[in-house]
Structure formats: C-alpha cells, structure tokens
C-alpha cells in the first residue's frame, strides 16, 4: 500500500511539473517565433520571393511545426497522467487520495517557482 501511495504521489508531482514545462515551452515558442502580422500566411510565388527568403520561410515553418508538435505531445502526456491520477482517486482509498493531494502540493511548490526563472 505504501508503494502505491508513493507512486501516485510521484505521478501527481510529475503532472504538476509537466504543466510548468508546457508553459515554459509555450513561452520559449513565443520568444523564438514572434508573430508577424504584416505577412500573410499564403505561399509566395517564385517571382515574388528570393531563394534566401524562401529558405528562411521554410526554416521558420519547420521550427514552428516542430514546436507545435512538441507542445501537442506534452499535452497528450499531461492528459494521460491526469487520467491516471483521476482513476487512482476514484478508487476511493483515503491514503491514495492523500497521496494525490500531497503530490500535487509538492509538485506545485517545487515547479511553479521555475516559471519566474529565466
């Protein structure tokens, strides 16, 4: 029983750290890919763009795609961990419930100060 409570506690800590990691990745994505409102999202023809501009646009699209893919994968992991924690709570075991609560508190305490760093 003690191992079960410890595993659930660690899952809750991991869930909180994933939430912070997702926010940090989103902040990094916004800094590295500032929105360009002057440029339409349509494809440019070869006559309108130079080869270096086209290569830069392709590089930006690739980085944006990879950033969005990473955020999506982290979101999937967060949802799966969240459902596991919810299922543990739905066992209606007091010790498991207390492990989730304590794990969430510890995860919040450890992870959220990292949002203000850097």
From TrEMBL:
InterPro entries referenced in this protein's UniProt entry, alphabetically: Cop_transporter
Signal peptide: 1-17
Localisation: Late endosome membrane; Membrane
Coiled coil residues, start to end: none
Protein name (database record): Copper transport protein
Region spans: Disordered: 37-56
Gene Ontology molecular function: copper ion transmembrane transporter activity
Species classification: Eukaryota, Metazoa, Chordata, Craniata, Vertebrata
Annotated TM spans: 69-89, 96-115
Membrane association type: Multi-pass membrane protein
Record-linked Pfam families: Ctr
Keyword annotations from UniProtKB, A to Z: Copper, Copper transport, Ion transport, Membrane, Signal, Transmembrane, Transmembrane helix, Transport
Cellular component terms (Gene Ontology): late endosome membrane
Biological source species: Phascolarctos cinereus
Family: Belongs to the copper transporter (Ctr) (TC 1.A.56) family. SLC31A subfamily.
């Amino acid at each position: 029983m003690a191992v079960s409570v410890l595993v659930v506690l660690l899952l809750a800590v991991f869930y909180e750290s994933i939430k912070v990691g997702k926010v940090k990745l989103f902040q990094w994505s916004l800094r590295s890919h500032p929105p360009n409102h002057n440029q339409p999202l349509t494809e440019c023809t070869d006559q309108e763009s130079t080869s270096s501009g086209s290569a830069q646009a392709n590089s930006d699209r690739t980085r944006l795609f990879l950033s969005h893919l990473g955020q999506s994968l982290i979101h999937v992991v967060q949802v799966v961990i969240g459902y596991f924690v919810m299922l543990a709570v739905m066992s209606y075991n007091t010790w498991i419930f207390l492990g989730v609560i304590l794990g969430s508190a510890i995860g919040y305490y450890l992870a959220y100060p990292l949002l203000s760093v850097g």
